[in-house]
Amino acid sequence: MSRRELIRMTDDEVAAYLADQRDLQVASINADGSPHLVTMWFTVLDGDICFWTYGRSQKIVNLQRDPRVTVLCADGADYGELRGVTISGRAVIQEDRDPVNEIGEAVFEKYWGPINDEATREGVRAMGAKRFGVRITPEKVVSWDHTKLGGLY
């Protein structure tokens, strides 16, 4: 078995890894062809990577022009601890309030816990008034988990 095969995560491992991660690196394409890279908070809904952001942000401008996007979550301080997932796909921008609120509420719950009352829900929705949602359906997933090597390199 190749080293690449040894460190690849299963689909379940990728899902668990993404559920535990806080920061998502999002790369879109600027008008001049250069990459635009930002860190976002995110969630996974029905297998799609989702986040929300202001409708006038550079990443939204870029994704409206060219929906191709790559995202990355990675961690580990030493080589034997390195783990990560890179996902490439096409972004679908959500502007309608219901899907934007669904994404916003899911992101809120991932980072701050369940929405237990209507006042909190309304607060999250108010935060989303000027935001768009972004859903990325994975087309290509690359993963690595060097802990699977057991210290053998």
Task: Throw out a few tags for this protein.
7 strands; 7-stranded antiparallel beta sheet; alpha+beta; 153 residues; Pnp Oxidase, Chain A
Q: Your description of this structure?
A:
The structure is a single chain. The protein is α+β, with helices and mostly antiparallel strands and 153 residues long. The protein has a single domain, classed as Electron Transport, Fmn-binding Protein, Chain A (Pnp Oxidase, Chain A, Roll), CATH 2.30.110. Helix content is 32%, strand content 37%. It has five helices and seven strands; from the N terminus they run ααββββαββααβ. The protein has a seven-stranded antiparallel β-sheet with strand order 2-1-5-6-7-4-3. The protein is globular, with a radius of gyration of 17 Å. The two termini are 14 Å apart.
